[in-house]
Amino acid sequence: MLVAENKSAKPHVAKRLVVLHDFHVSFIVIATNEVSAGQDNLLRSSTLPPGLDVVYLPTVDVFAVAADGMPVAARLSVIVEEAIKSLKSVLVELGKIKAVAIDLFCTQVFDICRELSIPAYLFFTASVALLTFSLYLPTLDREVKPRISCGTHSPRVQS
User: Fold this and answer.
1) This model's pTM is above 0.70
2) Distance in angstroms (rounded) separating the CA atoms of residues 95 and 88
3) Cα separation of 80 and 78, whole Å?
4) How do residues 62-80 score in pLDDT, each as one tens digit?
């Protein structure tokens, strides 16, 4: 199962899990009254593979929970907070769940999964630059003296 906010590319990950690995995936969508036509068409498409079920949480009225001018991260946080109020009952209704993969903005779901004894994992896609830097960190740790945490200079990272 993947839990994700609206307007994401995560349905493609769910499709790949079904098609390439023969998983059964319930893709839970946080629905808002700010509908993305492309996302909606994708999730309601008749071309979704068997084994991929799209489950919509009750619609969140964005205008009721988010103030005008609210920073994007805060806006996403209040939308998710409102949407997941019904998640526990949805997960119970889905039956035996093997695991939940959640979006970075849905970390509150960890608590619900813990209550239901469902393993939960964070699905995080990073840019190539962040991935490269992360993979290069052990090399930097070995080669840069003094240690980065103690240094007063910025280390040069090879590109």
Assistant:
1) no
2) 11
3) 5
4) 888 888 889 988 888 899 9
pLDDT tens for 1-60 read 444 443 455 678 888 889 999 999 999 988 888 777 777 777 778 888 999 998 989 989
User: Residue 39 is encoded by which pair of tokens?
Assistant: 């996302």
Tell me if 83 sits within 8 A of 54, measured CB to CB.
no
Cα-Cα end-to-end distance for the chain: 36
Is the CATH number 3.40.50.2000 carried by domain 2-123? Answer: yes
What are the residue ranges spanned by the domains of the chain?
2-123, 127-159
Q: How far apart are CA 58 and CA 32, in angstroms?
A: 8
Locate tokens 């307007």: which residue? 7
